[in-house]
Design a protein that fits this description.
By secondary structure, the protein is an alpha+beta fold. The protein has helices at 50-55, 79-90, 92-115, 119-142, 145-166, 220-223, and strands at 8-11, 32-41, 44-49, 71-74, 168-176, 182-186, 198-203, 206-219, 229-231. It is elongated, with a radius of gyration of 33 Å.
Length: 236
């Protein structure tokens, strides 16, 4: 046998080609299991796994038979699996406490960097960011990673909107050729406009000529509901 009691092994990611694999065993595809015992029957040697005891309500005799062709090899846990193991080993409350502690240490590192920016304090911030990042990944696992990712996606969309509102856009103030009133338009496409020249702008009556009186930059958030300049440079 390739493995002994106590070894952690990874189950194959696809058990469909394994003759002795039952449908109920497929829930463990790609998962890490721990060898509890090695047994033998007329079909050959097989493993009993520690996880079977939990699955079968503590009755080890009901555990599945895991043959060699069902096992991918020794388990090399992924980063996420290591984080889950840390949570299981130390407990939720302790990991929350450690996360708070690491965030406090990051705050101290930032303060030191602001006071004295150099390679040493820069490196200290990097180290603390790494520690906080590891703890935050554990917190995400504990507090529902899927839901946190959904909320984060919504917040990023809102941030995108706020950044768009901060973007500078050229605005054109001009006198309407029909009613002579002065209005403001945005010029997001960069049409060439000059004071005193005629431009074509969107209006409630369609595309109309206007006489440009002022040109300036504004935040998009302040003017995004204004109509657009269609074309400029008509005097040239």
């Amino acid at each position: 046998m390739k493995h002994k009691a106590g070894d952690r092994v990874r189950i194959k990611r696809d058990l469909s080609e394994c003759g002795y694999a039952s449908e109920s065993m497929r829930k463990f595809e790609g998962e890490i299991m721990t060898v509890r015992d090695i047994e033998k029957d007329t079909s050959g040697c097989f493993y009993k796994m520690r996880e079977d005891v939990d699955e079968h309500k503590g009755n080890a005799s009901l555990g599945w038979d895991w043959y060699e062709d069902m096992i991918e090899g020794p388990a090399e846990p992924t980063d996420k699996e290591v984080l889950r193991m840390a949570i299981d080993t130390y407990g939720h409350d302790e990991q929350i406490r450690i996360c708070q502690e690491e965030m406090n240490e990051l705050g101290v590192a930032f303060s030191k960097y602001h006071r004295e920016p150099n390679n040493r304090t820069w490196r200290a911030v990097q180290e603390e960011l790494a520690d906080v990042g590891i703890m935050l990944r554990q917190m995400a696992i504990m507090f529902s990673e899927e839901e946190i990712n959904r909320i984060a996606s919504e917040k990023i969309d809102r941030l995108k909107e706020r950044l768009e509102d901060e973007r500078k856009v050229e605005t054109v103030e001009g006198r309407h050729s029909v009613n002579g009133k002065t209005y403001t338009w945005i010029n997001p496409d960069g049409a060439t406009v000059k004071i005193g020249h005629v431009a074509i702008a969107e209006t409630s009556k369609g595309h109309m000529p206007i006489i440009v009186t002022h040109v300036r930059d504004e935040k998009m958030g302040n003017v995004k509901r204004h109509k657009k300049i269609i074309a400029g440079g008509l005097n040239e």
